[in-house]
Prior knowledge:
Blueprint (H helix, E strand, L loop, with lengths): L9 H12 L16 H16 L3 E4 L5 E5 L8 E5 L13 H16 L8 E5 L13 H6 L5 H5 L9 H7 L15 E7 L4 H5 L3 E7 L1 E10 L16 H19 L4 E3 L3 E4 L9 E10 L2 H22 L2 E10 L2 E2 L2 H13 L4 E6 L4 H5 L5 E6 L15 H20 L4
Parallel strand pairs: 3-4, 3-5, 5-14, 6-13
Antiparallel strand pairs: 1-2, 2-4, 6-12, 6-14, 7-10, 7-11, 8-10, 9-10
Bound molecules: glyoxylic acid (GLV) and manganese (II) ion (2 copies).
Amino acid sequence: MNLPDLRVDGRRLLARIDALARIGAIDGGGSCRLALTDDDGRGRDQVVAWMREQGLVVSVDAIGNLFGVRGGTDDLPPVMTGSHIDTVRTGGRYDGILGVLAGLEVMQVLDDAGVRTRRPLVVGVFTNEEGARFAPDMLGSLVYVGGMPLAQALDARAIDGPRLGDELQRIGYAGAAPVGALRPAAFVELHIEQGPVLDLDGVTIGAVEDLQGISWQELTITGQSNHAGTTPMRMRHDAGYAACAVATFVRRMAREMGAGQVATVGNIQLHPNLINVIAARATLTVDLRNTDETLLKRAEAWLAEFLATLARDEGVEIGSRVLARFEPVVFDAAVVRRIETVAGRLDLRHRRMTSGAGHDAQMLARICPAAMIFVPSVKGISHNPAEHTQPDDLCAGANVLLQTLVELANDKEV
Length: 414
Ligand code: GLV
Ligand code: MN
Ligand code: MN
């Protein structure tokens, strides 16, 4: 069979997506596999079993990144694809998972057709992409590209307490392979868009040319608990009120800034968290993102000014801790063009676009030419069990991945 005629087996891909979704399944069709929990471990076991069934050479590195390697004919650096299988607490069944399982499907198609590429092909499964249990997000791929020392990453603390290195040991994924040993010639990640652009435009394939900067911080506000009935309003140092004021401020700021600025307070914890006690302490997270680094810095500065005023006006102390800070990323123009060309050849409507979400590809872009393929998320819903992508779109994305990887893996000049 001619290489350009190769296509993925949609039923096989969907069956695997279904099987993985059953591990850590939650109501509504999604999954909860927070990084390095037992369910994440069981999900990894399943992926490793599939890799072995396919005859891939499996390795796990010291930060728990998992790789399945399919040999090539030439002694050249590999082409890598992949993503993550950890989820947020209320995760869907496609975020990250599609990129990993489509990568395995590509290799299966090549096996079935008896095709060997010049370069080896690798599917990577990166640790703690979500950042929902350990900060920062994209931690496994960040360490992989040398952006964070291994020891520091292993010392990261989960939101529920344990140390990352201990959790890796516990679930059996503290691997022996040195981190970053496989140096890819190129990296291509297939992912659901997780936003509304492709769905609204009726376009099947996004060729992702850039990705917005991410600023995460945790604020701790210390006030004073007191009686809710007896304390006059002017005498309060209410950490709960201050936390809500921050949430209101960042939303108003983002709307006023426009220009793609987004802002989210996704987690607020109050202490003692009781109906008749003014909160003594609040911890909350702030997620700011923008494709323009200057604007993102401006948003951070305005927030800092607001926090100083709030602390003074309310008589509270506000401390902040950076959880993640990544500048916007521009993907490799040649890989983006290649994705567009392949999509065009497959007669798929396509457009260039920006990624609103963070992805492992943004880290791999530090060490090799990288880009991403997006497929539509119905109604732009993600980080929600209702996350959905039409089967035809999943297959279309996987076919674009297949052809792009084959081209790259047969190209000596990547
Ligand atoms: C990862 O899902 C992110 O928060 O962008
Ligand atoms: Mn993802
Ligand atoms: Mn996600």
